[in-house]
Amino acid sequence: MTTGCRAPAAAGGVRAAPHGEARRASASRPPTSCIPITGLIGQDRALKAIQFGANIKSHDFNIFVLGPPASGKTTAVKAHLGPKAAEAPTPADWVYVYNFDNPNRPKALQLPHGRAKDARQGHGGGAR
Asked: Where would you tag: which of 6, 7, 97, 114 has the fewest CB atoms within 10 A of its CB?
């Protein structure tokens, strides 16, 4: 995600200010006169891919995001997935417990949301 300054257009609309002009404009007028630019600029395909991946209803699919550090990857994904996650039901808790029959393969237990912490406290908190 990128934020910046848009300079007001002559006809009352808004236009993106070139880099040098935005710097001069922000130095000559207060920040309140700037309209924030939001979004992942120039990354329409990436945003469509995030939306596509988020709309897959099947299990066992992941979204892999790759890019340079501080390029807005996490911000973009959170901006698109946050509202979708807020609409979805709260997922169950998963805990792994010792398997006495096969010590190298712990057993996975699905518990109602919020119960994993209670289960750990109830069993002495041995697993972290």
From this structure: 114
| DSSP-based three-state secondary structure for 77 | helix
HSE at residue 126, side-chain half, CA atoms within 13 A, is 6
Query: Can you tell me the distance from the alpha carbon of 54 to that of 74, in angstroms, rounded to the nearest whole number?
Result: 15
51 in Cβ contact with 83 (< 8 Å): no
Q: Which domain range does residue 18 map to?
A: 5-36
| pLDDT tens, residue by residue, 29-88 | 555 666 666 666 667 888 889 889 988 888 888 889 888 898 888 888 898 889 888 998
Q: What angle do CA 44, 47, 48 make, to 5 degrees?
A: 85
Rounded to whole angstroms, the Cα distance separating 96 from 87 reads 28
